[in-house]
Amino acid sequence: MSEDLNLLYTDVEESVRDSVRSLLAKRCAPEKVVALYDGGDAGQRELWQALAGELGLAALLVPEEHGGAGASAREASVVLEELGRFVAPVPFLTSAVVATTALVEAGAGNLLGPLAAGEQTAALAVPLTTSPDGPIPAVTADGGALQGTATSVAGALEADVLLVPVRTEGGLQLHRVPAEAARITPLTSLDMTRQIADVDVTGAPADAVAEGEAAERAVRAALETGAALMASEQLGVAQWCLDTTVAYLKVRRQFGRIVGGFQALKHRLADLYVMVESARAAARYAAAALAADDPDRPVAASLAQAYCADAAVLAAEECIQLHGGIGMTWEHPAHLYLKRAKADQLAFGTPGAHHARLADLVDLPAA
Amino acid sequence: MTGTEEMIKDLTRRVEKLLAEYDPARTDRLEFLRARFDAGLAWVHFPEGLGGLGLPRELQAHVDRLLAKAGAPDNDPRRNGIGLGMAAPTILAYGTEEQKKRFLRPLWTGEEIWCQLFSEPGAGSDLAALATRAEWDGEYWVVNGQKVWTSGAHKAHWGILVARTDPEAPKHRGMTYFLCDMRDPGVEVRPLRQITGEAEFNEVFLTDVRIPDEHRLGERGQGWQVATATLMNERVAIGGGDIPREGGMIGVVADTWRRRPELRRPDLHARLMRLWVEAEVARLTGKRLRQKLAAGQPGPEGSASKLTFARLSQQLSGLEIELLGEEGLRYGDWTMKRPDIVVFTGKDAGYRYLRAKGNSIEGGTSEILRNIVAERVLGLPPEPRVDKNVPWKDLPR
Question: Any idea where the Acyl-CoA dehydrogenase/oxidase N-terminal domain is (chain A) (predicted)?
């Protein structure tokens, strides 16, 4: 493992953060996001167009030779912190991070132009719960025609292009399927800000972008990048929960005192702060290891997922508890964060799955 | 980046020059350490002339690596942890030029060991309640009182001391900070035996100890401010050591797990992996803290690291005993000893378990540290105080 990875934020990263945050503050108010749960429109399409068009976020991880910004996982991680902080309903993680990584790793960077320009989005057609090291869920091919359904796919509803792992007699393939050729069934999701859908590709036209080991490598790299950078989204969720709770406890009065002055609550918030700062170190390490292509990146990714997933959930649960009655209501945004945090905990492998993976990676076998 | 590379090149040149002039194989240890200090390679972030070169703190690791590779002796920082971690940064921040010149060099080389005369039987977490008096007799400060939990006092030449100089002032404003010569005839050190059976700490009785005014650190009445700087450094020193992966208590447990498959159980594996993750995240948090410190001064974030360290150390040492099963029922040695240094890893599991109980008490209890984080980092309202503006002499004790 490299001991010289910088875990702080660079000036460039801070300026990326500032521009993302100021755009989200203007266009992604929680009052608007909550509409998604009532079947409404949260303006998510316009929001993504602004993030992709005005700020160029869709092009961040696309190499320069394919029309992208050629930025690294470090900048992407800061974007994800801010998206988490606003529970923003945009396909940055699913399209600009996961699908983009799959295409770059598959050597199909030439297909990234429309994605980088924000004209199209893509989604990797596997369950959001897929862990980077488990079996890769895939549909089958019957005489060249695709057959089967990918379940619980995140980003599929808004995607123009689906990247579908296909199991054939010759091994795994990664196929590119136009979304309009698939039957996409939206599911009522625990987290409607990142809605999942079942994707039936039976009979859909497809062309393979990678085969055999290259396909496997591309899918695993995409999942691992998703896991590593999801930690930064979780950090953003946890940070919002901490900030919001601290601010509330500084104004809420009970028993004639500011509630935040009660030691029992101060100690809980102090513990929460310690946890959020720890999550920050883990998330930063995962992003830095990824950006540097450090040999420790699998450990870094699993470490960050194992820690940050639970941290975000606990922060959201504490946020609701410490807000008291208002925390349980639909009108307060806390519930949006709990739903995102809990769904994120399952995404790209649960903390338990990552513990098991770490046990292998660092030679601490279960038996 | 280029600036850092140039600094590293320059440091490499300086190390080579030191090694050429003082061949480690043929130079006396102390002579080498003094030469290293004079070359500014002791702590590169200190000013020139005081053992440093005014460079970013993180470059020290580069110097240490080069010197270790060349087989040069080091100053064994464990033997003077309080001197290096707490006295030195405080002297640097508050000392006069004469004090810095007088004290920093023998402190760094280990010729003079330091201890910390802060806690008292009636003033632990409420440090500002301390009652040890220092009175100016026209020639000396005359100190009377009792300190407790003084680690290493039995081998220290100097102690950093906080004493009350103005009982008429409210408690935080009536204290002054001193550098106390532990060889003064009025200083009596008695071992204080602990839960482990050892006496690494002491009680220190101060009877008419005479301290000259040039050993006062900071202004009269500024003692609380100076002590706070020491305590911030203490928390960083306790919570944020620069260690490799599995370098602390987790390494001991992981090593046992690897070597002894017959001890493995599924319930313990779940706990081991959770704690492995937490220990590694804590290590990275400490690393991040040090990267931040390289730019500035220790802030209250050190308290956060220390909180995590205490919790993990206790959970891991508890897990280790359970993992060992029958063997965990045994204890190494109850004989009273006075160790030179505190090492967790060289002892048995029972010692580690018992000693770790002190981690949430020494250097600020976890309860006090949570208050510090809540009030100074998060800006939550302070505890209601009944003692704030009352003269110290009128406080109930």
Answer: 10-107
Cα(A340)–Cα(A237) distance, rounded to whole angstroms?
8
pLDDT tens-digit readout, B281-302:
999 999 898 888 776 655 677 8
B243, closest residue in chain A (CA to CA): A3
pTM, entire model: 0.91
- State how far the alpha carbon of A317 is from the alpha carbons of A89, A331, B147, in Å: 21, 17, 44
Q: Is B31 a catalytic residue?
A: no
User: B291 vs A7: CB contact, 8 Å cut-off?
Assistant: yes
- What is the model's pLDDT at position B71? 95
Q: Rg (Cα) of chain A, in Å, rounded? A: 20
pLDDT for A2 equals 55
Identical fold at B114-221 and B226-378? Answer: no
Residues A24-33: what's their mean pLDDT? 96
**For A77-93, what is the HEC assignment?**
HHHHHHHHHCCCCCCHH
Which fold would CATH assign to domain B226-378? Answer: Butyryl-CoA Dehydrogenase, subunit A; domain 3 (1.20.140)
Q: For testing the chain B interface, which of A253, A266, A294 should be mutated: the one with the most B CBs within 10 Å?
A: A266
Pairing of strands B187-192, B201-211: antiparallel
A·B CB contacts under 8 A: 121
Give the pLDDT confidence score for residue A300 in this predicted structure: 98
Give bridge partners of residue B43 from the DSSP assignment. none
Where does the pLDDT of residue B1 fall: very low under 50, low under 70, confident under 90, or very high at 90 and above?
A: very low
Q: Which CATH number fits domain A217-362: 3.30.450.20, 3.40.710.10, 3.40.190.10, 1.20.140.10?
A: 1.20.140.10
Architecture, CATH, for domain B114-221: Beta Barrel (2.40)
Cβ contacts of A356 on chain B, cutoff 8 Å: 273
Domain ranges of chain A: 217-362
